[in-house]
Specification:
305 residues, alpha/beta, Rossmann fold, 3 domains, five-stranded mixed sheet, four-stranded parallel sheet, 13 strands, binds 1,3-dihydroxyacetonephosphate, binds iron/sulfur cluster
Length: 305
């Protein structure tokens, strides 16, 4: 089947079956086109809660599908591709963080949403890249244990010098690949362009940027800015989506290494087959995990809205 035909079939089947398709903005254009909603991690979690449909397909990675399930336990939630995990979310488990918590008993544990539901059960509050500074600022305790991304944590710490932020050595292998040399080369090649980077990049890279922000922050800035060109320091799809949306502007990826293989596992045939009852993975979480992990997400929405 051709792409457009497959997309039409997916749209028909999802309407017939009362299915909401959510896509993270790192998904390919053809997936974004069949989604009811596309956004960053925070926007997707809020949308998941309010979506009227009884079934949800999350085109993204596992922790995002788990977050949808936590927020909508009565809904049937599928992850579009069973192997689509986020390597950062798998870096730290309950055992490790329980040990660290024992060393820092008076610290509030702030978990980036890129963590497993199991790990969220022992954390105090979640954040996303777009809400991290705002949420950490509102926490009464000045002692914060921020997991797992030390780059995002360092970015938050730089914005909030009044907080004592303890970091561990975790992070996104995709964004961490970007080097200061990549920035220097991109700037030399496109001196007229603004450099926009995700806070999962290293502090050395972030320091050279004109703007540091979440996926949606980067997109909003580029759409609204009068600048003619932008160097995009996050997953390759963002430069592609922006080029499609704003044909009068130019978008250059900061590095060709900014490809998240996991985000790109989902294909149109995966979504089509899922709607035909084949493939994907239904997300199930036990009752204890649901209750404990949801507290963390609810608190995020409470503080981040
Ligand atoms: P956002 O919170 O900006 O959507 O980022 C999610 C993510 O996985 C970044 O790598
Ligand atoms: Fe995880 Fe990084 Fe991929 Fe985002 S880009 S899903 S943090 S591996």
């Amino acid at each position: 089947m051709k792409v457009a035909q497959l997309q039409q079939e997916i749209l028909r089947l999802k309407r017939e079956q009362d299915v909401c398709i959510l896509a993270h903005s790192y998904q390919a254009r053809e997936i974004v086109e069949i989604a009811d909603f596309t956004g960053d991690s925070y926007q997707l979690s809020v949308k998941a809660k309010s979506a009227p449909q009884s079934k949800v397909i999350m085109c993204g990675v596992r922790f995002m599908a788990e977050t949808v399930k936590l927020l909508s336990p009565q809904k049937t939630v599928w992850l579009s591709h069973p192997d689509a995990g986020c390597p950062m979310a798998e870096q730290m488990d309950r055992e490790l963080i329980s040990q660290v918590k024992a060393q820092y008993p008076d610290y509030t544990v702030v978990a980036y949403i890129n963590t497993t539901a199991a790990l969220k059960t022992i954390c105090d509050v979640c954040v996303t890249s777009s809400s991290a500074v705002k949420i950490v600022q509102q926490i009464e305790n000045d002692k914060i244990l921020f997991i797992p991304d030390c780059n995002l944590g360092a970015y938050v710490a730089a914005q909030l010098p009044q907080k004592q932020i303890k970091l561990l050595q975790g992070g996104c292998p995709v964004h961490a690949r970007v080097t200061v040399q990549d920035v220097a080369q991109a700037k030399a090649a496109h001196p007229e362009a603004l450099v926009l980077v995700h806070p999962e990049c290293t502090p050395a890279v972030a320091a050279l940027a004109d703007y540091v922000g979440s996926t949606s922050g980067i997109m909003q800035l580029a759409r609204g800015s009068g600048a003619p060109a932008f160097i995009i320091g996050t997953e390759l799809s963002i430069a592609e989506h922006l080029a499609y949306e704003c044909p009068e502007k130019r978008f250059y990826p900061l590095s060709k290494g900014l490809l998240c293989q996991n985000m790109k596992l989902t294909t149109l045939p995966d979504v089509y087959n899922l709607l035909l009852g084949r493939g994907g993975e239904e997300i199930t979480l036990d009752a204890d995990t649901m209750t404990a992990a949801r507290r963390c997400i609810d608190r995020m929405i409470e503080l981040g809205g």
